[in-house]
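SEQUENCE-TO-STRUCTURE ENTRY
===========================

Backbone structure tokens: a row of integers, each naming the local backbone shape at its residue.

Task: work out the structure tokens from the sequence, keeping to the layout shown below.
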Amino acid sequence: MNRKLLVGLLVLILAVGGVFVSKVFAGWTQPKGHAYTQLTYTHYDADQRYSTTVNDSNGALIGTGDSATHLTNVPKFESWTVMFYGEYGVIDNLTILTAIPHKWMRVQAVVDATGQRGPNGLSDIEIGFRYKLLKSLLGGPLSVQGKVKIPEAYKYTDPLTTLNLGDGQYDTDLGLFYGRGLGKGYASLLVSYLYRFPNTQFYSFKPSDQIKMMLGGGYSVTSKISIRGLLNYKRSVGNAKVSDGMILDAIIKGQILARTQDNMLVREVLGLEEQSISLSADLVYSIAPKMQTVFTYMRDGIKGIGDFNTKNANLGQSVSVALVYLY
């Protein structure tokens, strides 16, 4: 993606969106006793990856350096997700929230070789809160938002040889959420830190923590039609770790060739240091005063510019349709 196109997309994000649902995404809290609920169906697929590793003349993976990435083909991955998302206003300044996904997953190469489609069931469940710190800062509310990801709804198995429904470890995400109304639209910014706990369910390893940014915007085109845009960026801190036992087992199972390739295990086999940019656009139609449908297209793995880029992550896309109800 060239510089002019990326800048254009950033400007577009601030010009698109839906006021009807902007309070959910832009730092506002739900009024006491009110709720926002959304049921979403999503199909995601990816068959390419921005990698920082290459094969040498002997076929072994070697690193290209932290800033050097290249696009490579990978076995096609697909997932189908039905997710319930909900928010409830406990008091005017405090909202609790949850996200509960049910997933079906498959890797095409595995289907071709074994006929097995892959796992399905509940994935990582999130619970969290949003608390309004300031009613108005430069014309808009400032909130603190925290979430915990819970990996207890599925059985986690060997990540070296099997596809799992979730990450298998707890995560906590804490950040500041700012939103501001702009006439018939809005703009929002969320900056947060994701702390990822060690995973000890099968081996001992720790995914890298992440610094995350979400920039969004919205505009009401008519009384029934709105558009919305969103940019998500997550940057790996680079503190991923794998145990000696896991490295040895990866060598035995042919995932890596030597102990010195532990960084290949972290980046490619397990994907513990992902850094990515995604862009999405929504078309929102209000069916009734408290009900709407949302159609979303998301592009994951935008190349970016300089250090603001995607690496050690898939290039994929998703299409979603959602039903929203407020009460």
Residues 277 and 302 are 5 Å apart (CA to CA). Helices lie at 3-13, 22-25, 108-114, 244-252, 262-269. Confidence is low (pLDDT under 50) at residues 1-22. The two ends are 42 Å apart (CA to CA).
